[in-house]
Amino acid sequence: MDDLSPFCCRNAECPLYGRRGQGNIAVRARYGPHRRRLLYCKGCKKTFSERQGTPLFDCRLDDATAGAVLAHLHEGCGVRQTERLLGVHRDTVMRLGRQAGLHAKAAHDELVAFSPQDQQGAGR
Same domain, yes or no, for 47 and 61? Predict the structure, then answer.
């Protein structure tokens, strides 16, 4: 049985939007050569990919290879070096790196918007 607790509804109009572990997410089907899960919300009946909202959305690499690309970039390997070591085209490496960076920036901006003010640092 699939563990669906990390997933939440992606439909902003759904009353369960963004709430994990509510039991409203189910697997509708599997698709593609890597058998990705197509999920749906039982509340609003919307369907979405398990990778939607992640840097790996619309990436056709398997999870291990995509993770290895991001790990190489994180360790400071260049695009061409990563291409050569993993056998992945450099455009794919650049696209994944760009998507991961944009995703990290959006997550950072969202978290910083809700972080408390530093009262000790104010006025310095």
Answer: no
